[in-house]
Write a structure and sequence with these properties.
heterodimer, A: 11 strands, B: 11 strands, globular
């Protein structure tokens, strides 16, 4: 069974940093692209960033480019999101999701809440 | 970036009704479109990929159609478990974008 478990969320002040992790199991992690999607309270889904299986191709939404860094460790079956210079508008539940061969998100974690507030 | 526009934003329907949700892309995306269902407090769930392919385990009352810029998600006979918010997403470009969502309530 595919499982994705996010961790690392919490309450931080504007300008601070946070690192999210996503532990993957139940599939061959090193062969799949992965992405992060977020959802602000009461709002819709917003794609944040994607990384291919080998980390050679990485993409970011304009809203986070230059502040967030996606990475992965295939030996540890883990996906990460380093978030710097956090802003109030980054407050959201952050989901990691597996990307299928066609790049739709076919499995999702339960999400981790990031709150940016002074 | 490609903009995705869903309509309606909310709908209320009765059990057994046929329900149709529309998603329009700001430029052609071929058939690189997915539909997701999200229930309150839960992660999204993939329903349809490549515009019309049904994800494994998803009931056959869900179907998708369209190509280019206009797409539809149809629920042929609405069930009580189908409440939630439905999102389309394009993956024609690597800068993925979601529609704003359609909230479905059961009357």
């Amino acid at each position: 069974e595919v499982q994705l478990v996010e961790s690392g969320g919490g309450l931080v002040k504007p300008g601070e940093s946070l690192r999210l992790s996503c532990a993957a199991s139940g599939f061959t992690f090193r062969t799949y692209a992965m992405n992060w999607v977020r959802q602000a309270p009461g709002k819709g889904l917003e794609w944040v960033s994607s990384i291919n299986f080998s980390s050679s191709d990485i993409y970011y939404a304009d809203s986070v480019r230059g502040r967030f860094t996606i990475s992965r460790d295939n030996a540890k079956n883990s996906l990460y999101l380093q978030m710097n210079s956090l802003r109030a508008e980054d407050t959201a539940i952050y989901y990691c999701a597996r990307l299928s061969g066609n790049w739709e998100s076919d499995h999702w974690g339960q999400g981790t809440l990031v709150t940016v507030s002074s | 970036d490609i903009q995705m526009t869903q309509s309606p934003s909310t709908l209320s329907a009765s059990v057994g009704d046929k329900v149709t949700i529309t998603c329009r892309a700001s430029q052609t995306i071929s058939n690189y479109l997915a539909w997701y269902q999200q229930k309150p407090g839960k992660a999204p769930k993939l329903l349809i990929y490549k515009a019309s392919s049904l994800e494994s385990g998803v009931p056959s009352r869900f179907s998708g159609s369209g190509s280019g810029t206009e797409f539809t998600l149809t629920i042929s006979s609405l069930q009580s478990d189908d409440f939630g918010t439905y999102y389309c997403q394009q993956y024609f470009t690597y800068l993925l974008t979601f529609g704003g969502g359609t909230k479905v309530d059961i009357k």
